[in-house]
Design goal:
By secondary structure, the protein is α+β, with helices and mostly antiparallel strands. It is built from five helices and eight strands; from the N terminus they run ββαββααββαββα. The protein has a single domain, classed as Chemotaxis protein chec, CATH 3.40.1550. The termini are far apart.
Length: 155
């Protein structure tokens, strides 16, 4: 699993050191990651073959010609880059992907279980604050639902 958040600096060639813990997670026949523009946020999404296979499975469940299938094929498969690790554990991010999300200096590499995201540091700070607030509100609402279920179930 990809866990934790790391701040890393892109070098002049747009290379970033992928955390060792993340490299160990994707070890296999292909020594690297699949990377594409995230559908849910303004960042890059990356992961190993398992992530690629999961997206491909979702896409293949839809009938050919379905507008959602076409959108996912274009967004995920059409935007995907297969990035190999160099001997130092770095990947080189394509220019187009860096420009799309303003990745030029410091970035946040954020583990999300079976995938990770690469954000500009500033954009991630704002996203993290919004996500914390959403998590607080959601957890509070969930606890209230559970409390109401206990009260209603005991009567």
């Amino acid at each position: 699993m990809f866990l934790s958040t790391f701040e890393k600096q892109l070098d002049s060639k747009r290379r970033i050191v992928v955390p060792q813990e993340f490299r160990a997670t994707v070890s296999g026949p292909f020594d690297g990651v699949f990377c594409f523009p995230s559908i849910e946020a303004d960042c890059l999404e990356a992961g190993g073959k398992a992530l690629f296979d999961r997206y491909l499975g979702v896409i293949e469940e839809m009938p050919f010609g379905d507008p959602l299938r076409s959108a996912l094929e274009t967004s995920v498969l059409g935007g995907m880059a297969k990035l190999s690790f160099d001997t130092a554990g770095r990947i080189t991010l394509p220019d187009a992907l860096c420009e799309m999300f303003g990745l030029s200096d410091w970035v946040a590499v954020v583990g999300l279980g079976e995938r990770f995201q690469i954000w500009s540091r500033e954009a991630f700070q704002a996203h993290r604050a919004a996500q914390r607030e959403l998590a607080r509100e959601g957890l509070s609402a969930l606890r209230e639902q559970q409390r109401q279920a206990r009260i209603g179930g005991g009567a």
